[in-house]
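On clarity, I found the account of how folds are encoded harder to follow than it need be. Since the whole study asks how a given chain folds, the encoding of that fold should be made plain. For the editor and my fellow referees, an illustration may be useful. An entry of this sort, consisting of the sequence and the corresponding backbone structure tokens, reads as follows:

:::
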Amino acid sequence: MSLHSLLAKLPFGPWRKAGPLVSVVRLSGVIGQAGPFRSGLSLDGVAPLLERAFAPKNQKAVALIINSPGGSPVQSALIAKRIRDLAEEKKVPVFAFCEDAAASGGYWLACAADEIWADESSIVGSIGVVSSGFGLHALIERHGIERRLYTAGDKKVLLDPFSPEREDGVAHLKALQADVHEAFKAMVRTRRGARLTGSEEELFSGAFWAGRKALALGLVDGLGDLRSVMRGRFGEKVRLRVVQQERGMLRRLGLRTGNGSAPALEAGAHEAFADALVAAARKSLDDWAAWAKLGL
């Protein structure tokens, strides 16, 4: 046996033989642009992570940890496409691991992987499209508030929450939802193919299921967690390289660190900071609603 082979068996030193490498990216939260206090998933924010995850040469795979109730179909499609482009360019297989939920846009992201794994209690599916809002016209009338609205184009405000609901507005929205739904279904059909065992009527109804039922329907390939599955696939010495995002919240909020440890507001940032607080509160309600529709 050579000296190099002997040294490679030692548990320390640069000569030790490294185990197989798998890069790990966490995709967590509601998909879409978010306020400054909440980091929603968007291509702009995720792309640098994906580039770094696919960068190492000779790695065995890239693993995605997904925990999302969905959100923007556009951002879901853009992120999924970037994952597939990098996987094909680097010729690296992709594994998706569902945590609490990979639902709606979250499942769209999971479909970018070559294999999807879930926990028995993971919420999976929700292959549909939803829009929601409020009708407040009766409320403002009751309080003597006059709504003044001026447009050029009779369909400019089809879904104005302060005006009575219009039949043509509802029809227009449903047609738009149908187009987005078709794009979602096409993604699932393309990526899952013959692995789907449920009927399309059931799969594409917008329903969601726990992990074991999702496995029976062909929406996932197995039940298991990241560490166990990667060890079973690539051996006990597999190295999981977690790719994390650098956080710059203080600067995005217009805050800077002064001579002391406490951050201070930059000149002219007080109004922006107040607006950020309001936006963050509203975004928190939107995020809560997205999770609540799954019963989480």
The first helix runs from residue 3 to 8. The beta strands are 21-28, 61-68, 94-103, 115-118, 123-125, 208-210, 222-223, 239-243, 255-257, 263-265. Residues 260 and 266 are 15 Å apart (CA to CA).
